[in-house]
Structures are given as C-alpha cells and as structure tokens.
Amino acid sequence: MSTMKKFFTYFLLFVALYLLVQFFISTLMKEDYKDITDYTIKTESPEIIVTECKAAYTNGYIKGSVTNNTDKLIEKIYIRIDLFDKDGIYLGTESKEISYFHAKETVKFDIGYRYQNVNKIEISLTDELPEKEKITFKPDSMTETEYKLAIGIAAILGLYVILP
C-alpha cells in the first residue's frame, strides 16, 4: 500500500511540475505582440478587410479577408504586403496566393512575416508573384561583412562544442 501512495504522490508532483513549466513557457517566453494601426490598403476591388495586424520585435502577422466584389472569376491573384520600419525604410515583401476566386466570394487570409521593427504596412493585390527581395542591412545595424564574420565564428564555436 505504501508503494501505491508513493507512486500517487510522485504522479501528482509530476503533474504539478508539468503545469508549472507550461505556465512559465506560455507567459514568460511569449513575445509581446503589439497592434499595428498604420496600414494602408492600396486597392478597392477586390475588397480587403484587415481584422488583426500585430507585430513583435522580430516577426508579426496579418489576418483578414478578401471579397471578390467583381462579377467575374479571378483565376489567380496575390495578396501582397510591403513592410516598412518607423522611418519609412522598406524592409521586405510577403505574399499569399488566392486561386479560383469566384464572384461575391470571401476568402480569409493569414500572412506571417519575419522582419524586425515593422511599423507600417501597405497591402495590395497583384496578378504576378512578387519577387522576394534581398534584405539589406540598415546603417545603424551590423554590416553585411560583420554579419558573415559573426556567422563564421558561431559555426566554428559550434563545431568546437559538438566535436570532441
């Protein structure tokens, strides 16, 4: 009987520890997402409605819906978001494809991105897939040469730790 009591006690401690760890992971490790209210929709037809637009320091997402308010079938269209920092410097572009978009149809979208310090977003529709542009380093951040050097040093240190 005492082994069952010990087992039950350890089981309860394990469950309590698991719940405590999950609580800390969800509250302490979670990034602070802030609402972005500075977004511009550059198209009127099809109609774009943004329901949620949030950004953390290193990433963010946009949720919304697109309604085909034309009277024709759109075979392929891309939702394009251009991302800018607080100074208006272009950071990059993300896009999502919508295929066979019927008249009066509404489609929900969710586009995630991984850019730092996004403060302004421009949303538009395009017929062509936007090309991913190379991210350039801003003058106040690390230069590309310093970045490559840091990656090289990190790789060497990683190999030193992994290999005996």
Helix content: 25-40%
The total beta strand count reads 8
- Tell me the distance between the termini: 49 Å
Taking all residues together, what is the mean pLDDT? 84
| Main sheet overview | 4 strands, antiparallel
Shape: extended
CATH architecture of the largest domain: Sandwich
Could you say which structural class the secondary elements and strand pairing correspond to? alpha+beta
Q: Give the number of helices.
A: 2
The percentage of residues in β strands lies in: 35-45%
How many domains comprise the coordinates?
A: 3
Instruction: Give, in order, the helices and strands.
Output: HEEEEEEEEH
- Please report the first level of CATH classification, the CATH class of the largest domain: Mainly Beta
- Uncertain residue segments: none
Strand order of the largest sheet: 1-3-4-7
Q: Which secondary structure elements does this structure contain, and how are they paired or packed?
A:
Layout: H1 2-28, E1 34-35, E2 39-41, E3 47-55, E4 60-67, E5 74-84, E6 90-101, E7 106-113, E8 120-126, H2 144-162
Parallel strand pairs: 2-8
Antiparallel strand pairs: 1-3, 3-4, 4-7, 5-6, 5-8
